[in-house]
Write a structure and sequence with these properties.
The strands form two sheets. Strands 1-4 form a two-stranded antiparallel sheet. A two-stranded antiparallel ribbon has the order 2-3. By secondary structure, it is mainly α. The two termini are 52 Å apart. The model has no long low-confidence stretch (mean pLDDT 82).
């Protein structure tokens, strides 16, 4: 028995590593009808209705998205400030304003323009505006989910059709 090999039963093809399914007869086999050949399938479609958006889920999602936008805004303002400061834009603005507000070498107003362009002030205002945006976007998105749910109860929601990729 040790010298015998396992052979497939009569009429069947032997298993090979590339064939994971059972062997199929060729398409031009003598007893096969053209109606037996599978026709190409059209993509499946699903018609769904979005009836409810969970406010808690909308709040969490909008908070995370607005927080990421805040970080992007803060980094963008910091990089832009460094570039403009390196190019000397703020120094030129300060010098121009000082020339316009002084008469005969004497300052006519007590305006300190240099303090307007300090990095702490610029980034502080950016952080304040970004924090307010995070709170407002989160609150408005949550309120939008609640309003959608009320409107969906009245009119039935939004119909969406999904289709399988071809």
């Amino acid at each position: 028995m040790a010298g015998q090999q396992n052979r497939p039963p009569a009429g069947q093809q032997p298993w090979s590593p590339g064939s994971l399914s059972s062997p199929q007869p060729p398409l031009d086999a003598p007893g096969r009808k053209p109606s037996d050949i599978p026709a190409p399938r059209s993509p499946r479609k699903a018609h769904l209705v979005l009836r409810r958006v969970e406010p808690w889920s909308a709040m969490k999602f909008s908070f995370v998205v607005s927080l990421v936008c805040f970080v992007v805004l803060f980094i963008a303002v910091a990089v832009l400030y460094m570039v403009l400061s390196g190019l000397g834009v703020f120094d030129n603005i300060i010098q121009t304003v000082n020339q316009l507000t002084t008469a005969d070498g004497k300052a006519t107003s007590g305006v300190d323009v240099a303090s307007w362009f300090e990095p702490v002030r610029i980034l502080g205002y950016t952080a304040l505006i970004g924090a307010v945006n995070v709170v407002l976007i989160t609150a408005l998105s949550t309120l939008g989910a609640v309003i959608y749910n009320v409107a969906s109860d009245l009119v039935g929601g939004v119909e969406v059709t999904f289709s399988e990729a071809e």
